[in-house]
Amino acid sequence: MLSAVRRDRWAEPMPNPDPSSRHVPVMLDRVVALLGPALERPGAVLVDATLGLGGHSEAFLQTFPQARLIGLDRDPEALRLAGERLAPYSERITLVHAVYDELPRVLDELDIPAIDGILFDLGVSSMQLDEADRGFAYAQDAPLDMRMDNTAPTTAADILNSYSSAELARILFQYGEEKFARRIADRIVREREIEPFTNSARLSELVRDSIPQAARRTGGHPAKRTFQALRIEVNGELDVLRRALPAAVEALALHGRIVVMSYHSLEDRISKQTLAAGTKSDVPDDLPVIPAGHEPYLKLLTRGAEKPTAEEVAANPRAASARVRAAERVREKGLVA
Question: Which of 38, 249, 257, 310 is the most exposed place for a label (fewest CB within 10 A)?
Answer without folding.
Answer: 310
